[in-house]
Amino acid sequence: MTKHEERRADKAPAVHEVPAAERYERYVGGSPEVERKIFDRLARDLMLVQWKIKERSGAAGIDRAFHAKGIVGVDNARLAFRRDLPEDLRTGFAQPGAEYPAVVRLSNASGVHQPDAAPDLRGAALRIEVGPEETHDLLMTNYPVSHAKNAREFVVFAQVMAGADSTLRKGVALYAKLPWRLGWSTAARMRRNVTAATGRPVRSLALETYWSRGSILWGPAGPVRYRLRPAAGTPAAPHPPQGDPDYLGHEFAARLARAEVVFDLCVQRYTNARLTPVENGAAEWREADTPVIPVATLTIPRQDLDTAQARATALRIDQLAFDPWHTTDEFRPLGNLNRARRAAYEASSAHRRGHRFVVPTPKRNLIAGALLEKGFDALNRRVPWDRLPTYLGLLNIEAIRQVLRRDNLIDTEPHEPVPRPHPVAPPIDEHLRGRRTYDGTYNDLSAPRMGALGAAFGRNLPPVHRPDLFDTPNPVTVSRELLHRDTFLPARSLNILAAAWIQFQVHDWVEHKRHPAGGQSVEVPLPPGMTWVNTPGGAPEGTMRFGADVSAGGAESPILFANSASHWWDGSEVYGGDETVAKSLREPDGGAALHLPEGHLVPGPDGIPITGFRNNWWLGLSVMHTLFAREHNTVCAALRSQYPRMDEDTVYHTARLVISALIAKIHTVEWTPAILATELIDIGLTANWSGPPQNWLARLGLWLVDAHALTGIPETLPDHHGVPYSLTEDFVTVYRMHPLIPDDYRIADHRSDRTLDTLGFHDVQGAATEPLMRRVGLANSLYSLGIAHPGAITLRNFPRALQAFERSGEIIDLSVVDLVRTRRRGVPRYNDFRTGLHKPRLRSFEELTSDPDTLTRLKSVYRTVDDIDTVVGLYAENPPEHFGFSDTAFRIFILMASRRLQSDRFLTVDFRPEIYTPLGLDWIERNGMKSVILRHCPELASLLPRTTSAFAPWRASTPDGHGA
């Protein structure tokens, strides 16, 4: 927030306090919250209108949805208020004798560039510049009323008229499409207004009167409509010449070359809801009911519009985004159409500037998707998707994902319920367009805070807040009976690097802020006869305590939490989540490289390295951080060599882009197919990154269901699927994969497989990690983790080492913490969770598992199948064959995995050589986990798997130094 915004926020009334407006306005749907959602959808519809106009007109880029053709653009006009301004109209900047510079844009109203002689409305947009921190935009059209009385009519009219560039198309739109969408009487009224407004010739824009149509608040005076009319004595204009498509601009330029052009700004006061309605834009405020009162004079000075400077000024003004909400609370826009403009103008302007995107869905995809949804829904009652032939299964998953995108993306960020005026946004720093910010802001240029550090976690399922069930059944009992590991159950298709990798990634994606030890705590009652030591050296207690999550919603929203990491795939675990940390990790001389004395991370005072994310530190994390910090420095060296004129800051940020994208690629096409080891997943995830295989059946299916999947996500445009991007509480829940962590580690020599040490988890974590890394080296650490298996993600396999360990001054049982936090964050219990993800509801424990011991334990802990904790159910569920986790968890994965890529402009529209450099894109294309390992530890080449990823078990070395 800028200092100006802070000052405005201090002076402004609370968001819900708009008493003057509430006296006159009526919200669609009955409340501002419902209306906002409706208007957001209408705004997207207008973006689609812009896209349709571009496609039909063959334009090079997106233009304004309306008023596309600017005719006059000047920035040296003056607005002077009359000295006899009525007393009740003196408020804010409107004071007797006050004078302000103004920007003026006069235009044709159509969304396409057409000859001035074509039937059309004309528009006037003023920006009154009161000061560097206060402007007022006034928008007007040369007809007293709108063809549409409300936003819905306005958008429908725009939709049916988009691209109607011939008499035949206009006739079909007005006499067939419009009645079909809005009814005969409404369509007839709109046609009458349009015909009356556009049916007369316009000789000069200086001779036109322009009406606001909608109302604004004028301080204590209440609502007014305003108009701009030619001043008395304005010279007449000749008849338009034949054959000049731009005669209005030429006439105005000739007029200004001779003399100044003057308009009177006038207002009409509100009388009552019947004579001067606020909500109906199609109703005229007649002068007989409310007289016209001149309040100011607009003067456009004499000048030459045919100079290079004047043309440059007009071009700059053409790029401006005029919006009636660029004002102050005293002059707040009123009425349905104006409130819709808040969303519509922001969306339209952002779309035009390439800050926001719309992805039209082909009709074939809508039709085929609906048919496949119904067909697979029926089929899956008998045959689950994982038992179908590969390509049919791929279509099944695609159909499931479309349903999840429609039903399971919930925006939790607080929004202002009542629209508020706001200042003109400052220009975006050019640096922000080509590099990731430290805190994740400006990934979406139209919504800079989206997905940034501190943005709220979203939801895939409506939250269930049941404080009465926080301790039922007792989470300690659940943990002891169903989670604790008695015997290590290995995941034989993976190595421990896979466990380290997912923790490495989760630290980039999600982190709930916790109250520190001794602050606000969660208290968990212990079963009878049990005690717990909550702090090092503390006394045994009858209650388990640990720091509570810090709520972002306060008492009103106790289950709204902010992410202490950015939500984007931006490598923040390596680089840090704010500028101070990020710069501290670089070489002391300000170079682009990360500071790695002798190739190792630098330990902090507590022995844990100073890096982007340093919590829960252990050998696996140290390996990943060291490896990718070294890779960053290697990329920096390559960029310097290839582009010697690139400065060090640009080298750093370009290397960060490359490393972050390489990590995303490795996770997408290597780690995920390793833990979900089926041909179907391998094909699907590879298609996510680089498009589907050259298989006509697969491509035909995707063409029918999701045409955007034909190229791979990096070749598409950003798409948030109707909901601002964020990671979700449900996503956090399914990535609770602590059973992957073993309790015991064999450290071996990669040359001979000789045992160097046998250690417990406590010996490879915290401050003990870096001395071990330096003693055995990166190559031996990689090898030791590469030849050993992680734990299986299942019941009774939670690491013993994590059942009582010290973290941030507390001694916690992480298995209990996982249960408690999931309940307190409002994640639905397992049966509701799976049902919300469109899986059949369980009616009995036997439908979850057939294992006799598990059934006995479940029934002893839970009263009904509906009480089963989400984490317990996810671990208990039998996964599809070769899957490392459950199908229910997989539902969240197939929704959010593609979303992490699809929403990110640096992995879509800005995944291009101008941003990454050709070297950077080639680096991402040619590299993967194996090549990264071998670049820094080439001695491991013979030990890596031949045909599978680096996350599959490695070959053990033999005493002669070669892989077995």
Automatic annotation (TrEMBL):
The family database entries (InterPro entries) matched by this protein are listed as: A_dioxygenase (IPR034815), Catalase_sf (IPR020835), Haem_peroxidase_animal (IPR019791), Haem_peroxidase_sf (IPR010255), Haem_peroxidase_sf_animal (IPR037120), Oxylipin_biosynth_metab (IPR050783)
Q: Which keywords has UniProt assigned to this entry?
A: Dioxygenase, Fatty acid biosynthesis, Fatty acid metabolism, Heme, Iron, Lipid biosynthesis, Lipid metabolism, Metal-binding, Oxidoreductase, Oxylipin biosynthesis, Peroxidase, Plant defense
Name the cofactor(s): Ca(2+)
Q: Which GO terms describe its biological process?
A: defense response; fatty acid biosynthetic process; oxylipin biosynthetic process; response to oxidative stress
The domain of life is Bacteria
Q: Which GO terms describe its molecular function?
A: heme binding; metal ion binding; oxidoreductase activity, acting on single donors with incorporation of molecular oxygen, incorporation of two atoms of oxygen; peroxidase activity
Pfam families on file: An_peroxidase
SUPFAM superfamilies, alphabetized:
Heme-dependent catalase-like, Heme-dependent peroxidases
Protein name, per record:
Animal haem peroxidase
